[in-house]
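Each lists sequence, tokenised fold; shown next:
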Amino acid sequence: MLSSCARRAIPLYFSCLTAFTSVSVFADNTLFTAMDDPATAKTPFDGNIQAGYNAQSGNSQNSALLANTTMTWFNNNTAYSLWGSANNTTSANVRSSERYQASGRTRYNLTDRNYMFGQLGWLNDRFAGYNSRTTITGGYGRQIFNGPIHDLRLEFGPGVRHDEYRAGGQTTRALAYGAANYSYKLTDNAHLSEGISALANDQTTLNSETALTVAINSDFSLRLAYTVNYNSKPPASAPKNTDTTTSITLMYGL
């Protein structure tokens, strides 16, 4: 059990992380951050739709569109989740980013604290060098906190990833997966979340998402998110190791 000082330090650390990071470009994100513990579910279904759009014309012309959705269905001991996203950016009538992703996840509670999980994800991101990236993982998870203020889970297990590259060629490799997801309720209308995942073999991929969600009313919320993606061996067509994004979206609860 964490001390009261440690509990206060965790959300403070995540707040500082959000405040001091910068904006860059967006890459693949294999992180699934939906909280899916069926033991604490208040309804049999929970979901949301998020969207953000920006357009500029005149001396410069650019536009950006970000949209995603998360849906989770709960049974007594089982949860099933679906997640999808789309991201497009155009500058001076030239596409500078185009990214689509879809994921599915299932979780089965063995006890109040222990669970098994499986998840499948697909990514298309030609500006990061991938025609497609398909990842399947599964294993064991531990629910550390599941109270009204703190929610923390840790999980790990084996997996397989199949990559098809924009420059040609494909690879299929086994990997080790590990992840942590944390949510902290700041007020009745705001909560902070942090998700970290790692996929490792001879190539290591690290993903992190820090997000602040503030409710406007019973249906709509604003969400500020900062995502970091690190690839130790990126494709030759997209050689940078680290990509980041900062987004503000309007979220509608289903």
The helical segments are 4-19.
